[in-house]
Amino acid sequence: MEEFDVIVVGGGPGGSTSAAYLAMSGKKVLLIEKSEFPRDKTCGDALGGKSLQHVHAIGAHDAVISGQHYKYTGITMTSSNGNSMTINLRGNEFAHNTAGYVVKRNLLDNAVFSAAKRHVEENGGTVLQNTSVKGVIWEGKVDEEDPGKGTRNDRIAKGVRYVDSQKNEILARSQVVIGAGGYNCPVARELVIDTFEEEFQERAHWSGAYREYYTDVKGCKPENGEMEIHFVKGILPGYFWIFPAGDGLINVGTGMLLSEMDKQKVKIKQLHHQIIKEHPLFKERFKDSKAIEGSAKGWMLPLGSPRKNKKNQPRRSAGNRVLLIGDAASLIDPFTGEGIGNAMVSAEFASQTAEQIINGRDPVEAGDEFMKKVWEELGPELTNSYKLQRLLKRKRLMNWVIGKAGKKPKIQAMLTDMLASKESQAHIHSKFFLLKMFLF
After folding, report:
1. H-helix or E-strand containing 297?
2. What does the pLDDT look like over 141-151, one tens digit per residue?
3. Where are the beta strands (DSSP E) in 140-266?
4. Taking CA 334 as the corner, what is the angle to CA 278 and CA 107, rounded to the nearest 5 degrees?
5. What is the distance between the alpha carbons of residues 377 and 64, in angstroms, rounded to a whole number?
6. What does the pLDDT look like over 191-217, one tens digit per residue?
7. pLDDT tens-digit profile of 355-376?
8. Cβ(325)–Cβ(180) below 8 Å
9. Among positive and negative, which fits the CA dihedral 236, 379, 154, 16?
10. Are 16 and 113 in contact (CB under 8 A)?
11. Residue 184, class by beta-carbon neighbours within 10 Å (0-12 exposed, 13-18 middle, 19+ buried)?
12. How far is CA 300 from CA 157, 184, 222, 256, 275, in A?
């Protein structure tokens, strides 16, 4: 049984970033990935300034932009009645949420994973691919018959059990386990469901999404320009997106809350194709387009919207020597659906917290501080995004807002600032400020 300082489960952008930061600080890391890179990951493929800061920090930036990509400099939005506006994001690509790229995830993830692999192996760690984690190694447990004998924090993560490519089950021990395995991460499920018996999937805070790649979609600029987000009737709160990915390839998708899909009794795949074939804004644009065979995939998005009456927001992401990041911690933006940047931010915090635990800090106290720190950093943005998501339910108001913004450059500038800085985002709390912007 090999010993490591930290085991990271999941080699996506969040897991690879945390593994890279830990290895760069001299820690012995085991990074486990169930697939083999390069591999596809279903996503909208947008990579904003928040993500690029970490991509650059771990030495993956040049590899990311060396291949096929699209530089986006703005976001065009349309409301359900056809009103439109464009938010200009030209600026420093390493600033928060400004101009960035659309990069296919097989390229992005491979670049970030390769950088992490290099750092991990240079510092004496191990990277495993085609390896499935079967569970966490726990020591100590709650006495169900007499809860006074122990708390749920007495269940300590000591490592993981995994099965290698030859089907051998192996145990690996560590001082900290980081769960970065996506929306169905085995570490997250064992922590949230099995250990603390808390709710894992709240359908009002999860979205379903469906994506396909197309060519020959009319109206898309060839090299750089705008991404498109369309708030189409029938999928609110949610949207239909058109994201150019470079060299004529277009990422096209539909996202919708699971709770709304339940209410309307719709399937996301059928709705997606109906929009493309029948909607008056898109049927001509897609008339001569071609879908890339095998590119159609659906997936789940655990959103970071705040929950009512929950101590840990948006849900528990730490226990005794175990930390969750990215999708495993339910940190996806509830308005835009973007999750890579938040995964990387939480990955940096997790690496810092893991170092504190290794250096002797109380692991429960450190985990609680980690959850607090993540929410302090991402909570205001996620809360504002949740307010915007709820605004989408009010179709008339959304139509009016986008209609006004399309005609008033200062409103577009305000929205640009809101996307680009936390200070400007604070204005959304002021009803007077918004009223002044839209009426005068």
Report:
1. strand 297-302
2. 776 666 556 68
3. 156-163, 169-179, 206-215, 224-230, 238-246, 249-257
4. 80
5. 26
6. 999 999 999 999 999 999 999 999 999
7. 999 999 999 999 999 999 999 9
8. yes
9. positive
10. yes
11. middle
12. 27, 9, 30, 10, 20
Are β-strands 2-9 and 169-179 bridged in parallel, bridged antiparallel, or unpaired? parallel
List the structure tokens of 194. Answer: 């099995």
Phi, psi dihedrals of residue 317, rounded to the nearest 5°: -135, 15
* 414-423: burial string, b at 16+ Cβ within 10 Å, e else: bbbebbbeee
Q: Which two tokens stand for residue 18?
A: 């945390």
CB 412 within 8 A of CB 87: yes
DSSP state of 289: -
Sequence length of the chain is 440
- Contact between residue 182 and residue 147 where contact means Cβ atoms under 8 Å apart: no
Whole-angstrom Cα Rg for the chain: 22
- For residue 371, CA distances in Å to 395, 405, 412 come to 35, 36, 34
**Cβ contact 303:205 at 8 Å:** yes
Asked whether the beta carbons of 88 and 74 are under 8 A apart, the reply is yes
Residue 126, token pair as written in the block? 């191990």
Identify the helix (H) or strand (E) that includes residue 132.
strand 132-139
Tokens in use for 57?
A: 């920090």
Cα of 242 vs its chain's centroid, Å = 18
pTM: 0.91
| 3-state DSSP helix/strand/coil % of the chain, to nearest 5 | 40, 25, 35
Q: What are phi and psi of 334, to 5 degrees?
A: -75, -15
